[in-house]
Amino acid sequence: MTAARGDAPSFTTVDYSTEADGTRTTLTFAELGVRVRAVAARLQQVAEPGARVAILAPQGMEYIVGFFAAVHAGLVAVPLFDPEEPGHSDRLHAVLGDCAPTVVLTSTSAAPGVRAFFKAVPAAQRPRTIAVDGVPDSLAQSWTAPELDRSSIAYLQYTSGSTRVPAGVEITHGGVLTNVMQMVTSFEVPPETGRGVSWLPLFHDMGLLVVIIPAMIGRPCAVMTPRAFVQRPLRWIKLLAEAPGVIAAAPDFAYEHAARRGRPPEGADLDLSGVVALINGSEPVRPSSLQQFQDAFGPYGLSPYAQRPSYGMAEATLFVAASTAGQPPRVSHFDRDQLGAGKAVEVAADAPAASMYVAVGDMSVEQESLIVDPQTCEALPDGSVGEIWLHGENIGAGYYNRAEETEQTFRALVAESTDGRHWLRTGDLGTVVDGQLYITGRAKDMIIIGGRNHYPQDVEFTATEASKVLRSGFVAAFSVPAADGATGSAEQLVVVAERASGQGKADPEPAIAAVRAALAQRHGLSVREVLLLPGGSIPRTSSGKIARRACRQQYLDGTLRGAPRPGAFPDVQDDTHETEETQVTA
């Protein structure tokens, strides 16, 4: 990549900590190649092929160089984060204990914090710490190309681990190559003008692929920090407008946040007509977020086809499916009772039992999928709701050091199939209607009360619509064992919600009553408890999704009420929160 592009810009990091317009640092592809080979050569001096290299650096150029250097050294990169970020100590200890890195890559500025983090570890067991920006360019000449093939492990992508120790997905070189090809094809990235723009944490699978793609196709990429986006989302919008051919990604809540707080001032000279694809990788993708973002930035040239609801996961490297190119996102309404019974039956939007879903579209090239009965492992016809199973070269090799979980998740066999192919069990429930994939929920999140199935996101949507006090996209619904003395079902419903902007002092009782009434009317559900909490209280995964099982556990443990939870993903705070600054990774 570097030989072909030479003096063309590769990565530009934008630091907003000292200047309002940001301080930019850019490496050309030639300079990037020298830095990557130099650090890779240093790694080859101190680590054997296949050893794990943890990246514990702030989001910036050292992180990017360090990641690519570990891969170029023939080692296994483990993208993590600066240990000085608040609220992540337990996760970091768990992951480092699992992968046992030989080397830690960091920056000169973060090195003292990294060494302090490992201070309690016996000296003989500590990994070697290398500051990426302290390695001289002259070492690049001693780099030796490693012997690798498509099955070689490139990096470990750790899952969120909201209710268990995080698991490291083994991502192969072949899987990365395949997934990049799939994304470039599905999102129609222009080969001569395409460029990336990202604020996503680099340790997250979506954040990582958004910077891998430009590097592999030889195109530039601008990177800012999650904190910079959360504080002023207009910064991201301005970067999107700087040149044509943009591909970017964010979870659903970020588009709503940008629409609310990232609008340019009246008369601003902003041209978003060059944005090719804005990947929305959340489940669920909310039609309201799509519409708000288009309403906010359509007047500045943003194409109505730019927003691309998508589906993916770490176990598939990242990308699996996306809405059809050149078409607006498709929104359908299904009968909720039929969905609970395992059938997707389309109804009118105003039907009493209508539930709204956004299609995540077509499967990527070289990606096979099935809808499968999770109990019998039998393939189901279109229109049936079942577990999504995947097969393709982009699928990870398994979970690091977890043979039993790997067998269960990555080696599934379809009942009565004779081809012997292994399938990835995603744990996600979905259906295919008219060739379009819809994600209906997580199998483990399903709410079962009185023998009936209820999708939590459907319950959450009803609760949000019932009162303006509830913050859209920040509601968790789950079931818990019935309280002693309760009659009827063995499980009872709990709804936990964060307060919306401007609702910090609102009387909670009318909102709680409205939620109870709406859920009784639309779903036939009685609610054990409705909790209204300050922003940042509901736990989320590393990709910004509501972590319902973690929320349920905190509720049962009595640790949830009103206690802000330091999240791996930036919490979007609003004016009802006591703390304006957020806990942000990188």
Write the layout of secondary structure elements.
Blueprint: H1 2-5, E1 9-15, E2 23-28, H2 29-46, E3 52-55, H3 61-72, E4 76-79, H4 89-99, E5 103-106, H5 111-117, E6 128-131, E7 153-158, E8 168-172, H6 173-186, E9 195-198, H7 205-217, E10 221-223, H8 226-231, H9 234-240, E11 246-250, H10 252-261, E12 275-280, H11 287-297, E13 307-312, E14 319-322, E15 331-335, H12 336-340, E16 354-358, E17 362-363, E18 367-372, E19 386-392, H13 403-410, E20 424-433, E21 436-442, E22 447-449, E23 452-454, H14 456-466, E24 470-481, E25 491-499, H15 508-523, E26 527-533, H16 548-557
Parallel strand pairs: 1-10, 3-4, 3-5, 5-6, 9-10, 9-11, 11-12, 12-13, 25-26
Antiparallel strand pairs: 1-2, 7-8, 13-14, 14-17, 15-16, 18-19, 19-20, 20-21, 22-23, 24-25
Helix pairs in contact: 2-3, 10-11, 14-15
Strand content: 15-25%
Helical stretch tally: 16
Over all CA atoms, what is the radius of gyration? 24 Å
Summarize the biggest pleated sheet. Answer: 9 strands, mixed
Q: Record the strand order, biggest sheet.
A: 2-1-10-9-11-12-13-14-17
What quaternary form is this? single chain
Number of strands: 26
Helix content: 25-40%
Give the overall pLDDT as a whole number: 89
Terminal CA distance reads 27 Å
Unreliable runs, pLDDT <50, ≥5 residues? 563-586
Shape: globular
Helix/strand structural class: alpha/beta
